[in-house]
């Protein structure tokens, strides 16, 4: 057996240093590589295959609601960006500017899109004439760039991949409906495919998207008790339509402004998945999104019949629509186990000479490490069942974690103590004033994550200033 | 019946003005829209859906040969670009430079990728250590930017979408094998999915990719007799590996440079498809790539049973895996026919009260306008058959056009007359000197398209200078 250079080395334990554990997993599970481009990462095959599955599953959900994909330019002329004041102020400090084409200085500089509201508005202004042209429900898959100072794999990088939906509607009601609908699509995707439960709610004025009337968000809780904004959906009302002059002729022959929305989800959710499900052996992928769902690892593969049977099992599983691979390299089985675990493959099939003799194989769950002996005759059905069980139980565990790490606070002392000693969400009442959000951030570093759709009245007073409460808010330290 | 604003207006006939016909089709078939970003277009749903099918079918072929998808940054630091002299000289005049991040002037400027050899080399230099890490067969789907002066939809725009494969191999032989393999993938895709026959061959030194050892190409012939380079595959040998220091430790424990390839296909092929198959009624899409393969158009849809039967047919076809849509808007059938024809949908199902009575429907081919009456019981099988027939016959017609527009020339007078009077390819012998290529271009505007793999010895002398011939070359005026 050849000596293998690429050992599955130890990764930092998450209890010792969660941030280092996270980075170690990104690297050792071969998801990303560093590049010579500051603040930008290379997404390696194992990472990109996850993104491809995310794209596929999200895109299918989008199209089921009537979304159509398009592609707009990556550059925005400065005068176009400048038309909407709030958006400019929100993004100007973090855009990259193109000033030269070849050797020539450009007459007008262009920025690389940090988001494409401006471009869609410009396009819709030309493309929409009549009420018959509405609604427009477009989306694009692309990369965007924001000149961040500090970066972390998937969570914050200068360039990142995402989808951005941009819609235009005749009425404010229809725009609001679409804003909520897409938030629900995100929540459904996160819960059912990534096994990540979320809190759905509205961002405060302070935390909403620059230029939006309001922003809805899905907030998830990482294993370390920090919050991660995992998808947002914005209702622009006719704010952008006014700035960019996007109008249509209505049935009554009058000109009206359209009502717009936008909604986005990024490669960030890969980071969320790592931090919700991972453990000290590496990545743990939910079966619905795992590029490889099952890895077959022969024990004593040189023994007669073992490799043949392994190939037979691979074909059985593939035929049943399971994404399966066989590790028949000359590494030791122990190495192969570690690699499969590091990569987060949900199920391992162990198969040795005894198993072949018995007509059985051993299924080992990545998430719980439970073993299950199954007859090879039934292996396809049993594995398919097991993958669904794993998917469901991963969500159940994440839900239990979310619930057990959500705390209520009524007094400010309680609030501060909870935020400082108990990682997780703290629910508390809020008066609606930005001043209290700023006070809380200064005192605890926690920010308002959202005003959840499901409101509970914990008290009548703002936890910070004591004035009458307007809403219950989820607070937390966030990525 | 409501008055419909969006008529299918007349487009310029291709005989009158082929260039204007092309632009009209791009606009009227709703493939693209103009933007306020100079030289960049918006790809609208009908255009992007074609690109999605191209991506899907190409990606499947790539993966079958072991290709894995990744994602590299869109920005290239200037010092990284500068490492390979030929590449810099080739691309420097046409890259866009980022000089500012937010309000800050950058210490080093970065260009937006015109192509990503530099980034993959930088990545491979870090990622490849041993012969065990080879081969690397990576690809990415992304957009690139080249600061072109004059632009045309799909054919030449500052930003365009493409895939770029970048591979690293232990040996020169393996790199050469991959270069040819990917060219064959392109040819197979173009012929079988886009119904575009191609000439496969090698580019001359003058026309090869900057920095490559040699470039292979697939050249297609448009309806107007102009050539279009439709995909290229480059063998870099170890030229880039030397410049970027991409080395591996071989089995014999010595350090060696890797051998690299790259290959790309772009949204240009959508332009090729339009110009090979389109007619004066608009787009004609090959069934394999058409987002909608069949449009059902009811005649007198208000008559009893017609719409119900149309829905039933839609379900039958969809169940058989056919991409089908039903136009049940309140436009007149004539309008609907024109729209379906403009959009290039391969088959139309016409269904009126009489058809319902007879249990039949009429299939109308977009390409030949032939009609076929079929029993509704058999409509799924008959339509599937017809789609394959159309696909095959579209390729046959394009092949016949290519053959009938390929001419041979032995003397220079013959050559010039043919190039100037007969749109198409001219095959002629060449001495191998760049001077003759330049002379021919100056005299005729034709360029060398490729030295085909299938060589025929038309004479012993260069058509231009009369010196001994080294190769037979396809010449043509090109997009």
UniProtKB/TrEMBL annotation, chains A, B:
<dbReference type="GO" id="GO:0017101">
    <property type="term" value="C:aminoacyl-tRNA synthetase multienzyme complex"/>
</dbReference>
<dbReference type="GO" id="GO:0004827">
    <property type="term" value="F:proline-tRNA ligase activity"/>
</dbReference>
<dbReference type="InterPro" id="IPR002314">
    <property type="entry name" value="aa-tRNA-synt_IIb"/>
</dbReference>
<protein>
    <recommendedName>
        <fullName>Proline--tRNA ligase</fullName>
        <ecNumber>6.1.1.15</ecNumber>
    </recommendedName>
</protein>
<dbReference type="InterPro" id="IPR033721">
    <property type="entry name" value="ProRS_core_arch_euk"/>
</dbReference>
<feature type="domain" description="Aminoacyl-transfer RNA synthetases class-II family profile">
    <location>
        <begin position="45"/>
        <end position="286"/>
    </location>
</feature>
<keyword id="KW-0436">Ligase</keyword>
<dbReference type="InterPro" id="IPR004154">
    <property type="entry name" value="Anticodon-bd"/>
</dbReference>
<dbReference type="GO" id="GO:0006433">
    <property type="term" value="P:prolyl-tRNA aminoacylation"/>
</dbReference>
<keyword id="KW-0030">Aminoacyl-tRNA synthetase</keyword>
<dbReference type="GO" id="GO:0016740">
    <property type="term" value="F:transferase activity"/>
</dbReference>
<dbReference type="InterPro" id="IPR036621">
    <property type="entry name" value="Anticodon-bd_dom_sf"/>
</dbReference>
<keyword id="KW-0648">Protein biosynthesis</keyword>
<dbReference type="GO" id="GO:0005524">
    <property type="term" value="F:ATP binding"/>
</dbReference>
<dbReference type="GO" id="GO:0005737">
    <property type="term" value="C:cytoplasm"/>
</dbReference>
<dbReference type="InterPro" id="IPR004499">
    <property type="entry name" value="Pro-tRNA-ligase_IIa_arc-type"/>
</dbReference>
<dbReference type="Pfam" id="PF03129">
    <property type="entry name" value="HGTP_anticodon"/>
</dbReference>
<keyword id="KW-0547">Nucleotide-binding</keyword>
<dbReference type="Pfam" id="PF00587">
    <property type="entry name" value="tRNA-synt_2b"/>
</dbReference>
<dbReference type="InterPro" id="IPR017449">
    <property type="entry name" value="Pro-tRNA_synth_II"/>
</dbReference>
<comment type="function">
    <text>Catalyzes the attachment of proline to tRNA(Pro) in a two-step reaction: proline is first activated by ATP to form Pro-AMP and then transferred to the acceptor end of tRNA(Pro).</text>
</comment>
<dbReference type="GO" id="GO:0140096">
    <property type="term" value="F:catalytic activity, acting on a protein"/>
</dbReference>
<comment type="similarity">
    <text>Belongs to the class-II aminoacyl-tRNA synthetase family. ProS type 3 subfamily.</text>
</comment>
<dbReference type="InterPro" id="IPR006195">
    <property type="entry name" value="aa-tRNA-synth_II"/>
</dbReference>
<dbReference type="InterPro" id="IPR002316">
    <property type="entry name" value="Pro-tRNA-ligase_IIa"/>
</dbReference>
<dbReference type="Pfam" id="PF09180">
    <property type="entry name" value="ProRS-C_1"/>
</dbReference>
<dbReference type="InterPro" id="IPR045864">
    <property type="entry name" value="aa-tRNA-synth_II/BPL/LPL"/>
</dbReference>
<dbReference type="InterPro" id="IPR016061">
    <property type="entry name" value="Pro-tRNA_ligase_II_C"/>
</dbReference>
<comment type="subunit">
    <text>Homodimer.</text>
</comment>
<keyword id="KW-0963">Cytoplasm</keyword>
<keyword id="KW-0067">ATP-binding</keyword>
């Amino acid at each position: 057996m050849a000596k293998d250079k690429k050992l599955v080395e130890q990764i930092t334990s998450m209890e010792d240093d969660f941030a280092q554990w996270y980075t170690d997993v990104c690297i050792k599970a071969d998801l990303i590589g560093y590049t010579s481009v500051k603040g930008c990462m290379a997404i390696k095959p194992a990472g990109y295959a996850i993104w491809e599955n995310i794209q596929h599953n999200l895109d299918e959900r989008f199209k089921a609601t009537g979304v159509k994909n398009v592609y707009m330019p990556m550059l925005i002329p400065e005068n176009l960006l400048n038309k909407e004041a709030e958006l400019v102020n929100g993004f100007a400090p973090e855009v990259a500017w193109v000033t030269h084409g070849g050797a020539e200085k450009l007459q007008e500089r262009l920025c690389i899109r940090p988001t494409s509201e401006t471009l869609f508005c410009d396009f819709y202004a030309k493309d929409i004439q009549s009420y018959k042209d509405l609604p427009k429900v477009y989306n694009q898959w692309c990369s965007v760039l924001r000149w961040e100072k500090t970066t972390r794999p998937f969570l914050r990088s200068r360039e990142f991949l995402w989808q951005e939906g941009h819609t235009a509607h005749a009425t404010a009601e229809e725009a609001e409906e679409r804003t909520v609908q897409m938030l629900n699509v995100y929540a459904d995707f996160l819960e059912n495919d990534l096994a990540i439960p979320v809190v759905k709610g509205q961002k405060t004025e302070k935390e909403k998207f620059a230029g939006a009337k309001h922003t809805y968000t899905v907030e998830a809780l990482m294993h370390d008790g920090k919050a991660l904004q995992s998808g947002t959906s914005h209702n622009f009302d006719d704010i952008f339509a006014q700035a960019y002059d996007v109008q249509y002729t209505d049935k009554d022959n009058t000109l009206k402004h359209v009502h717009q929305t936008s909604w986005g989800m990024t490669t960030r959710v890969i980071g969320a998945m790592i931090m919700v499900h991972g453990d000290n052996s590496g990545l743990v992928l939910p079966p619905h999104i795992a590029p490889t769902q099952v890895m077959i690892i022969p024990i004593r593969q040189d023994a007669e019949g073992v490799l043949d049977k392994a190939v037979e099992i691979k074909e059985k599983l593939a035929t049943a629509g399971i994404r399966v691979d066989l590790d028949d390299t000359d590494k030791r089985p122990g190495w192969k186990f570690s690699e499969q675990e590091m990569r987060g493959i949900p199920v391992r099939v162990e198969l040795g000479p005894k198993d072949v003799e018995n007509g059985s194989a051993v299924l080992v769950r990545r998430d719980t490490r439970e073993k299950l002996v199954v007859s090879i005759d039934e292996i396809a059905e049993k594995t398919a069942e097991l993958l669904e069980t794993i998917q469901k139980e991963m969500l159940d565990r994440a839900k239990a974690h979310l619930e057990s790490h959500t705390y209520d606070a009524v007094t400010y002392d309680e609030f501060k103590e909870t935020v400082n000693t108990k990682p997780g969400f703290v629910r508390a009442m809020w008066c609606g004033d930005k001043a209290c959000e700023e006070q809380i951030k200064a005192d605890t570093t926690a920010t308002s994550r959202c005003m959840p759709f499901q409101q509970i009245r914990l008290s009548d007073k703002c936890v910070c200033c004591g004035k009458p409460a307007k809403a219950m808010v989820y607070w937390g330290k966030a990525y």
